[in-house]
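Journal club prep — side note

Before the paper discussion, L.F. wants everyone to see what a predicted structure for a comparable chain looks like in token form. Sequence:
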Amino acid sequence: MPQSQFVREQLATHHDLSNFNSGEPEIDSWLRESALRASARDYSRIYIWHSGDDRVVAFFTLSAFAITSEELPKNRARGEQRGIPALLLGKFALDESIQRQ
């Protein structure tokens, strides 16, 4: 498997978000203004990709989630615990510089 040209890390204050542009202003704004706070409050974990220069070119968020047995189809819910642990991929975006690659 070829090695990626990108480094994946958990979002930190030293990462450069200033030029991130996914083409979706609401997502870009959330990343710059709210992502670090969401991570600090343990609402989600935000992972970023950069090329070794700390300039963010992609990100995704993972949050703890649970599916209740009532939300499952009847044939799947039998015998299941009340809450089934899961991960929620909440947000995902690529900078326009790497889209369509």
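L.F.'s comment for the group: The chain is about 20% helix and 35% strand. Keep this in mind when we get to the figures.
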